[in-house]
Design a protein that fits this description.
Largest interface: A-B, 66 and 34 residues
Strand content of chain B: 15-25%
Strand content of chain A: 25-35%
Largest sheet of chain B: 3 strands, antiparallel
Order of helices and strands of chain B: HEHEHEE
Number of helices of chain A: 10
Helix content of chain A: 10-25%
Number of strands of chain B: 4
Shape of chain A: elongated
Structural class of chain A: alpha+beta
Largest sheet of chain A: 9 strands, mixed
Oligomer: heterodimer
Chain lengths: ~575, ~90
Amino acid sequence: MKLEKIDPSLTVVLKNFKLEGLNGLKKHMNSLGIISSTENSPKLPRLVSFVYCDSNAKFDNLVTRNIIVNQKKGKIRTAFFPLDSLDEVSEDDRIKRIIPAQYLKMKMDIAPGKVNLPTFVNSTGLGGNGVIIGIVDSGIDPNHASFDGRILKIWDQGLSGPGVDEGHYGLELSGNMLTASRDVHGHGTHVAGMAGGMQPKFAGVAPKSKFLIVKTDFQNAHIADGIRYIFRVASDLGKPAVVNLSLGGHFDAHDGTDPLSLIISSEVGPGKIVCCAAGNEGTDNIHSQKVVAKNQVRSIRFMIPKQGPQWAALNGWYSGTDKIKISVKSPTGFNTPYQKVITGGDPTREYDLPDGKVTIVTSPPDPSNGDHNFIVYVEPHNLSSLPVETTWKVLLRGELINNGRVDIWIFDNLDQQESFFTGTSVSDSVKIGSPGSATEAVTVASYTTKNKWIDIDGVQRSIAFTLDSISDFSSEGPLRNEIQKPDIAAPGAYICSSLSADSELDRRFMVSQSLRMMAGTSMATPFITGIVALLLERDNNLDPNGVKSILRANARIPGHPQNTFDTKWGHGLIDMSQV
Amino acid sequence: MNYNKVDAALAAALKSEETDKNLIPVFVGVKKGLGQDEKEYLQKLGLTFNKNVPEVIPTTISQEAISELSDQSWVRYVKLSTRLKPK
């Protein structure tokens, strides 16, 4: 036996076979190409393998000994022979190397199993046939094998053109022109793959659905246009549709009354569903909540990092039945005057403190919910030259109080380190912003099913996420008006899905040239979007309440009774086994 | 400009030098059941209706148009469109 020609995994197999006989092969049979026989069968175990050889080598003389090399030419060929013949094959000078075949798995193998999706799919045969999945995101790789022939149209809002009925900007593409649009970010391609991708080594949740794609600039008005576009085109085609919104922000009232949430809640209906991400701020100190009494002053501390945007923006809301004055105090103790709600004129006031410029906006009640919204902008002077981060304070003084509760969020719309609340000013709740706050949307939290993978260079990677639990980063509800959100949890970390060829990516997160790893409620959302597509195939008249009823009835928080709600889990992890 | 109808974010944006005053993305909230005159007024400003939610209109308009709209009795609010991010 020339062991130097034999792959290490095969030497282990041989050792186990010699020590334990057929029993020793059992542990390898799910992973390696070993075909075993029953205990008393005269047939010997056989091996399916790759063999490396000279490209013109001929192996006809081995056939009589049941050693079959399948190809007549080539440096790497496949072969099939009794395990007992391994010795002879390794001694053959024509053979340079022997590597056993391996069973490949669909790359989303962990996540679907954790929620019993294969059980549901196998028993129902559903795949999203006749359903449209709409993705409003960073675009899609139109050449990716995962979506071959299934992208109906792309509305690329960034390209020059006459636009569509819902917005006279951008360009609508179809057919051969789809390739004019590119996903350089990669987010949208990964999301689409999760929801309905399909290729030999990978499958999304609803691989028979068709796609309508909106490549957006993430302006929420343009996102609203995109949602309307998808539902209009789907309606023209006579198909039900589910729209995936793996995006969000915190510059809204967090109660579903912002314009985008209102548009979503009005657009959905029978055969028209929207799924939204809950958000990834579960471990970020972006929310503060205080209750202010009459004549009382409460302070909220926030820090502005030296690295980052060099400014802070805070978005505050309180009841329209209260009157609260707002002031800002600088790190060295200077503060602005207390500013009341300003009616009948510009509600913006600017203050030049020694530490920096402060802008406070105290508008009259918002007609959508009757509540007060105030905004604070702080631009510190010479922030980068300071030795440490600086702590600022928002001061709230109660003038007329019926409710007293004040919620403030940090504006977190950037991909760099931003301001954050500190100490007792932190409130780990009410972190689901628009559009996840849309009451009629299905809002999805993330559950961790995988924290290790082998990257494209063969290196094992691992992330310190707790397996089989709600992901730490998943944003907490409820909404500001106590409406229960999120609705449901689904696998969102770490998920393998389609890689856009036009995106630049750290190789540590690449699994192959066409697949990558990502994590976020962005990944959990298309999981549910795909499930909704399967449900719509079964009943194309399902409305949001119907979808939520099905999801809730088939979800559970581990260790808790059915129908328990939690501000992080929602109604729990989806389980498709009984749907 | 009727600032009672302009949300805080838009009020701040209108003050900011970084805002392109000719192209401000907003949502315009209008009362239900607009008459033909009002619809034509909006169409002249480039706003398009959606039959499902005619009361909330996303659009991109100038500061002058925002000021004009805020002065109309049938306009409920004008709110700044903000940029979201992938999750």
